[in-house]
Specification:
Arc Repressor Mutant, subunit A, two-stranded antiparallel sheet
Length: 176
């Protein structure tokens, strides 16, 4: 945490832009001094804007989508800038052999794609079953309509009497 009344430690020489070396540290509580030649860690010596970007990354708990919103940048741009900051801090991009060929993002995307594929397949199977039921029902309804039409046509032609037609129509209705 930054002490009140102090500034951030400069990391570059204001004259020649060379690396600065810390030679004295002082305790803010008792005033004791430690003299020597100390180097800053990669993160402590990280220049702007990389330092602020990695600080934001930590503040939002690694949520790149939140960084997108705060910075007003696209996801790929935020990811690219984070990659630059990590490389500047001494964390080179991992090679495929170091990550066994698959990054966590790729694994996440693969898992997400598999879940989506599974749900789509389930939905398609359900839709297929529904379509088959509807088709069977439509076929039965068409059969019923045709049977009714046949009975009424026979009645009209005089092939059967009205009471017989009525019995046949009641029987068709019971079956459907």
């Amino acid at each position: 945490m930054e002490e009140q009344g102090t500034e951030l430690t400069p990391t570059r020489c204001p004259t020649c832009n060379g690396d600065l070396l810390v030679t004295k540290l002082e305790c803010s509580a008792c005033g004791a001094e430690v003299n020597g030649r100390f180097t800053l860690s990669n993160l402590a010596s990280l220049p702007e804007p990389h330092a602020s970007l990695l600080e934001m990354f930590l503040r939002v708990r690694g949520n790149v989508k939140e960084m997108e919103r705060e910075l007003g940048l696209s996801y790929p741009t935020v990811r690219a800038r984070l990659e630059e900051a990590l490389q500047a801090a001494g964390f080179p991009k991992e090679s495929a052999s170091e990550t066994e060929g698959v990054s966590w993002e790729a694994r996440f995307e693969d898992e997400l794609a598999e879940r989506i594929r599974s749900r789509v397949e389930q939905s398609l199977a359900g839709m297929q079953e529904t379509l088959e039921r509807v088709t069977r029902r439509a076929g039965r309804e068409a059969d019923v309509k045709q049977l009714r039409k046949d009975v009424l046509d026979r009645l009209e032609r005089g092939e059967i009497a009205a009471p017989e037609a009525a019995d046949l129509l009641r029987e068709i209705k019971k079956r459907s």
